[in-house]
Amino acid sequence: MKLQEASFSLLNKLRTIYSASEAAAITDLVMEQLTGSDKTERMLYKSNPITREEEERLGYYTERLLQQEPVQYVLNESWFCGLKFYVDKNVLIPRPETEELVEWIISNCKFPIDQLEILDIGTGSGCIPVTLKRRLRKAVVTACDISETALGVARKNAARLGADVNFLQLDILDRGKWSLLPRFDIIVSNPPYIPENNKENMEPNVLLYEPHTALFVPDDNALLFYKAIAELGESHLNPNGTLFFEIHEDLGPALLNLLKKGGYQAEIKKDLQGKDRMVKAILDKR
What we know:
Layout: H1 3-14, H2 20-35, H3 39-44, H4 52-65, H5 71-75, E1 78-80, E2 83-85, H6 96-107, E3 117-121, H7 127-135, E4 140-145, H8 148-160, E5 165-169, E6 184-189, E7 194-195, H9 204-207, E8 216-217, H10 224-236, E9 237-246, H11 252-261, E10 264-270, E11 276-283
Parallel strand pairs: 3-4, 3-6, 4-5, 6-9, 7-8
Antiparallel strand pairs: 1-2, 9-11, 10-11
């Protein structure tokens, strides 16, 4: 099978379940990993045959993709802030909105860089702490997650990308374990925030494959994790320390009210789609 034929075959099959643009984007990702060549190189050598091993892998990938498994899980990789992260079904796939959150954190760093203490809660793949450590080299970065398997993925990414991050298995809702943590200048989290009743509106590739414990919260307690982290901040943030959150677009006003009651000065930031997706909260000087 020639390279161009293989590419067209995958593209046409994906078009049966995805839009034309999504199918093309997925095809590019698959063919790049399969051949180790970028789009320009593949155009130049489109008449070259692919190997038997490549053809077998393509068949395996295609079978999984046609079951609407996310391409990031199929390929075990996802790009985030220009870095390639390993991902599997134990962790959420990094999103562009989270990239915006990381950039907002970096742009707000007013502390001397060598004194920054940063905590990421619910780290998943480790994309947030690894990227922050790569960009803020002298910062001391800690990341925690309730899932030991997720931490295994995060540790793998930190090692592969040369980021010295401290990892800790911790259920942040277990307030009795907070004494294990030091004080921080920045606490960041992209916690579960999707109400359970939103499941019926979600795409199958998310609902069927991504870890539900990292996605959903009870319908009657959507601020569950934000409340706990805000309380943690009251005892574990240094003076004028800052919380950074990714949020559900409908939770902004309720979260701002919660944070204000906790002694924070908070603001909402919209993402590039114009949705309320990020919150910064500064703990008043004590």
